[in-house]
Amino acid sequence: VDAVDIPVIAAGGIGDARGFLAAFALGAVGVQMGTRFMATAESDLNAWGVEQLLGMKETDTIITRAMTGATVRCVRTPEIAAYEEALARHAPETEITELKRAVRSGRHPGDYSERRQSAMGQVGGLIRDVKPVAALIEEMIAEAARLAGRLPAIASAR
């Protein structure tokens, strides 16, 4: 923030009131949250994705180009792990193309007819519920205000 003369919007790793408040404490004028809004009533994330998101730990993600060609962080699946392993061992292009096709098809046997991948950040490890967007925003702002109110008490205790 100190290095630029434009407003800074914080993005990445913000999924609760603590991260929200920290971004403003560091000088941001706003925040962008992606993963947290995937677990809202209004999200179009499919059932498989919601289940992954609600059950994940912050270590359950992987960075890959398999999905779109751009670098994104998403839920680690066997298909994406196989793709990344093939890249690491310099597998033949035909194998990498087939693995990429498996990632992008999103189909697999099991309870879900579709395993459509979406970019998801490590902040998914904080998410344990699905709620309406309005409730999420109201709760986050109220909790950030509560936490901010505690800051003078913390500072004066030192």
Q: What would you say this structure looks like, in words?
A:
The protein is mainly alpha-helical. The protein contains six helices and four strands. It has helices at 17-25, 35-38, 47-55, 78-88, 93-105, 133-156; strands at 9-11, 30-32, 61-64, 72-75. Strands 1-2 form a two-stranded parallel ribbon. It has a two-stranded antiparallel sheet with strand order 3-4. Helix 4 (78-88) packs antiparallel against helix 5 (93-105). The model has no long low-confidence stretch (mean pLDDT 89).
Instruction: Average the pLDDT over all residues and give the rounded result.
Output: 89
Largest sheet: 2 strands, parallel
Which secondary-structure class do the elements indicate? Answer: mainly alpha
Amino-to-carboxy terminus distance: 27 Å
How many β-strands, per DSSP?
4
Q: Helical residue percent?
A: 40-55%
How much of the sequence lies in strands comes to 5-15%
Counting DSSP H or I runs of 4 or more residues, the number of helices is 6
Low-confidence stretches: none
Shape: elongated
- H/E element string? EHEHHEEHHH
- Strand neighbour order, sheet with most strands: 1-2
- Please tell me how large the radius of gyration is: 19 Å
Brief summary of the model shown:
The chain has 6 helices and 4 strands. It has helices spanning 17-25, 35-38, 47-55, 78-88, 93-105, 133-156; strands at residues 9-11, 30-32, 61-64, 72-75. The chain starts with 8 loop residues before the first strand and ends with a helix.
